[in-house]
Amino acid sequence: MTTSIDISELEKLFSAISVEKAPEKALKKLEEYPERDQCIQFLIAKLRACHRMDQTDGPWDSKLENGSIHACRLLGKMKAEAAIEILVEVLDSVKEKPDLIIFSASLLALVDIGPPVLEPVYAKYEKDQDDPICAETWLDILSQLGVRDSRIKTALHNLFRSDTILAISCMGSYADREFLPLVEKYVHSAARHLNMCNIDPHAPFSRLRDPMVHAYIETRETLVRLREDIDFDHPDFDRRVNILDDELLTTHELRDTESGDGAAPFVRPSVKIGRNDPCPCGSGKKYKKCCGKA
After folding, report:
1. 17, 83, 134, 161: which could form a disulfide with 22 (CB 3.0–4.6 Å)?
2. In Å, how far from its chain's centre is CA 125?
3. Closest C-alpha to 223, from 193, 191, 179, 192
4. Which long-range contacts does 198-206 make (Cβ < 8 Å, 24+ apart)?
5. Taking the model in full, what pTM does it have?
């Protein structure tokens, strides 16, 4: 049975993480708390309290909200299966308001918990079929669980017909090479379109010029991931994406042979913009967070 001393200690640690940038020391203490089950139940209780607060018109407690966001992070890292129900409940209530940080925190926690999340989240996916945005939220989680399931594959194929770019992104997360031919065909088609239209997808603001720029940029990374079995966070990933760009974005005489207007095809610039480079538009942000982002 929980003692008042234990609760006092947990309350003190929770108070320490109830700020936007929680101290790593306090987070680590909670994650490695000796009475693991007790700590998990305590964090779940705090998350439920925050959820109740969000559902009512009562006074808002920003500390409880901040602490609950970090509680989601901890419950995911602790792979707390006991927290699946409340995490699904929280995500279900805020999935139409993705600007809320708690949305991302609860989603990532479910992904971190992994395979035990499959059945409850798939049940939500099936239930929300009449609401495409909600269904896509659940499918996004399912694709990241590291579970091979025929139902997820079928759902991804279905999504491909209605939202190709999102489907390919999820296929990359699912990381099954069965999807490689489908993704490869789409990316090659997008690259041919850009070559024929004389569009450099890496030029500033090029996404505003043609929607296929967005399609190419967002999908060719999945092609690299599936083709080479490499994770997005691998230190060599960006280099391999650039190699793919050199392979696909050619200077073949497509315009002369197919469009007949005699215009010269575009030539890739000698200097490429890396995803982590400053954006050329001058915003001060990284390219992937600015013009390199939809």
Report:
1. 17
2. 17
3. 179
4. 198/255, 198/263, 198/264, 198/265, 198/266, 199/266, 200/249, 200/266, 200/268, 200/269, 201/249, 202/245, 202/268, 202/269, 202/272, 202/273, 203/269, 204/279, 204/280, 204/281, 204/291, 205/281, 205/291
5. 0.80
